[in-house]
Amino acid sequence: MKVGGKHFRTIWRKSDDERVVQLIDQRFLPHDFVIEEIRTVEQMATAIREMHVRGAGLIGASAGYGMYLAALETACARRDSFDEHMTGAAAQLTATRPTAVNLSWAIDRQLQNIAAGKSADEKVALALCTADSIADEDAEHCGMIGQHGLALIRQIAKTKRNKFATANPSCGGTVNVLTHCNAGWLAFVDYGSATAPIYAAHDSGFIACVGD
Q1: Which domains does the chain have, with CATH numbers?
Q2: How far is Cα of residue 113 from the mean position of the Cα atoms in its chain?
Q3: Which one, 41, 107, 170, 207, has the greatest CB density within 10 A?
């Protein structure tokens, strides 16, 4: 999604410091666009618990990066008890939103992948790779929802006959899209889920305008 003409995800690693995770602090929206810098698992736990980040996909990605930050902290100070402290970090993050499925899924995925590392440095590298993969997959899957949904919107429009279709034969009929729950861009790493087809339709020039 673009903000001020620049593309943003809802969470990402800082370009010049991979030990810092940046995210859009949603508490200040829509009046202010605030980017928060997260450096510790404790800060990430607070961000999830106090709803700096919201939405299933984004919570999962945040947990993934939280585990990566925990791995960095552990490698610096507690190499001899790495796995033990990672288990503690997992419990800390899980407690922030215990009913969030994406949260526990991302944490379990991190623990499983990190366990394959033979050294603290390998474990940190695996945690980083896993966190990035969780975020990238979330954005990719939402993008795919958009493309599949766009095809359905086009198909529905072709079946409708109304004044809009008469005035604009190449576009077909008006399609009204009703979504439920927190399904927009801010709830995921990018694109959104239920709203992704709407964004895709708009970007393709198929939708003239989007209303509330």
Answers
A1: 2-136 (1.20.120.420), 140-203 (no CATH)
A2: 20
A3: 41
